[in-house]
Design brief:
- The chain is mostly helical.
- It has 8 helices and no strands.
- Helix content is about 80%, strand content about 0%.
- The longest helix is centred in the N-terminal third of the chain and has 46 residues.
């Protein structure tokens, strides 16, 4: 009888041990996974320089980089009007040249009005020495279009201009919260709206034209 009681107690202890620790291990792992996902998201966010700039620092950097960015878009678009094989691209390039040239004038006026460093096409990074500057990115895109004509030019132009527009949209998404001046917030919102539509249009052309 005593042996049976001891055996029963031992079995009960084993069942209790596995029941307690087996059920606790899964939530611990879940918490660890959740924490890792949050940390990864924060690291990706912090990789974007605009995520951590506020006020005047954001506005000055944004203007410098967007001026360089617009300069690149205008140069690419003027070239496309001469080399493209498609009227659709010629029309889009003309629209980009006109709209972004007007925005360039406004942004350079704001640099002077707000006492920021007046920049040309190098971008913010070219003055801080941290990584490739925006102007360098634009030159690299232009170089990929050199010596191309007709269909080959159109295919590469769409690919590069989509990337180019995506950069502008990514830069602009932090303005609503981080920018100081309402003018910057309004410009960034226009950039997001206009260039997102143009990205969708260019991707449709890629699909229809088999690029």
């Amino acid at each position: 009888m005593i042996i049976a009681i001891i055996a029963f107690a031992a079995v009960a202890a084993v069942i209790w041990y596995f029941a307690v620790f087996a059920t606790k291990s899964e939530p611990v792992q879940t918490i660890q996974d959740s924490t890792a996902n949050i940390a990864e998201k924060e690291n990706l966010e912090n990789d974007n320089p605009y995520a951590n700039l506020k006020g005047d620092a954001f506005d000055e950097a944004y203007l410098a980089d967007m001026i360089a960015h617009h300069d690149g878009a205008v140069n690419m678009s003027e070239q496309a009007q001469a080399f493209t094989a498609r009227e659709e691209i010629r029309t889009l390039a003309g629209d980009i040249t006109m709209s972004q040239s007007q925005e360039l004038i406004k942004m350079r006026d704001w640099q002077v009005e707000w006492g920021y460093e007046v920049t040309m096409s190098g971008g913010h990074m070219s003055h801080g020495g941290a990584g490739m500057d925006m102007g360098g990115d634009m030159v690299e895109m232009m170089n990929k279009l050199n010596d191309l004509r007709g269909e080959e030019y159109d295919k590469e132009f769409l690919r590069q201009m989509i990337i180019h527009h995506e950069q502008a949209v990514e830069m602009s998404q932090y303005a609503e919260v981080n920018a100081k001046h309402q003018e910057i917030k309004d410009l960034a919102n226009d950039v997001i709206t206009t260039q997102t539509k143009e990205i969708e249009l260019m991707k449709q052309w890629q699909e229809v034209w088999g690029y």
